[in-house]
Amino acid sequence: MAVTGKQFRIFSHVVLILLSLSCVIPLLLLIMSSFTSEAALLRNGYSLFPEAFSLEAYQFLWHSSGQIMNAYRMTLLSSLVGTLSNLTLTTLLAYPLSRRSLPGRSFFSFLVFFTLLFNGGLIPSYLVWTQTFRIKDTFFALILPNLLMNGFGVIVMRSYFSTNIPNEILEAGRIDGAGETRTLISIVLPMSKPILATTALMSGLAYWNDWQNGLYYLVKRTDLYTIQNFLNRLIASMDFISNNATNSAITAGITVPSVGVRMAVAVIALIPILIIYPFLQKGFVKGIVIGGVKG
């Protein structure tokens, strides 16, 4: 029995709806759990329809608002600096690799691809960053390791430059006297907004969601913790909450809603991403589709 175009569209829509629900339902479950009383969570578990609505998790976090706001500031700062650095370095490497006239182009492209397959491992990387570059307990610990640049972003951006920037336009720029720097800034970058938005979004999400750098490289400087490190400490041990609760919270006799607090902090960490992503979604999809072709 042949499948008609209408039947295929219905089937594909059903599959996409199910996939969408598989993404949306956990998010709704997270949000609703943060507004559920601790007793109900412990008694009934997570539910999309809370048995007992409560703000106790957010009330508890309010007493630690100073730490949360500082973690937010560090997250915003590290994400901004890291994204701009990642975007700059990725562009400066991807553009020359996209030029067929570059001597040794294949060799350098292979080196970039090689980093996707192999790396030095956690212990050698830790020794290099802490003993050679000495970034331990500094702001650079949130920026440099693992996230500053990755081979996947370089390859995608190189493919975009190769397939979507006509050589005729670049040659016209050279005829007009533009050097490589002027060509990149005045011609290539204005024509590459989709892939720039894609790279920026991917890098920004990586920095925003990163908790490993803070865990490995921040030992004494807890004031440099990002919101993800703050959340990780909550999950690892609820003693962290008790030890860092303010005197006013202890005096008021506020209990520690451990499960609800974890959900609430996760919701707080998600809010900026939920706000920003819709504005970058169009460029993100376009950049991935166009930049993903073979260059």
Structure commentary:
The chain is mainly α and 295 residues long. The protein is built from 15 helices and no strands. Helix 7 runs parallel beside helix 15 (258-291). It is globular.
Write the layout of secondary structure elements.
Layout: H1 5-34, H2 38-44, H3 56-62, H4 65-98, H5 105-117, H6 122-132, H7 151-164, H8 167-175, H9 180-188, H10 193-209, H11 212-217, H12 227-236, H13 239-244, H14 247-251, H15 258-291
For this entry, give a set of tags:
about 300 residues; mainly alpha; 15 helices; globular
What is the class of the largest domain in the CATH system?
A: Mainly Alpha
Q: Please tell me the overall pLDDT.
A: 83
Give the biggest beta sheet.
none
Strand content: under 5%
CATH architecture title of the largest domain = Orthogonal Bundle
Q: What are the secondary-structure elements, in order, as H or E?
A: HHHHHHHHHHHHHHH
Number of domains: 2
- How many beta strands in the DSSP annotation? 0
Please identify the structural class as seen in this structure. Answer: mainly alpha
The number of helical segments is: 15
Distance between the termini: 40 Å
Give the overall shape, derived from the CA principal axes: globular
CATH topology title of the largest domain: MetI-like fold
Return Rg in Å: 24 Å
Percent of residues in helices: over 70%
Low-pLDDT sequence parts: 246-253
- Look at the structure and name the CATH superfamily of the largest domain: MetI-like
Summarize the structure in short.
The protein folds into two domains: 5-44; 56-291, MetI-like fold. 72% of the residues lie in helices and 0% in strands.
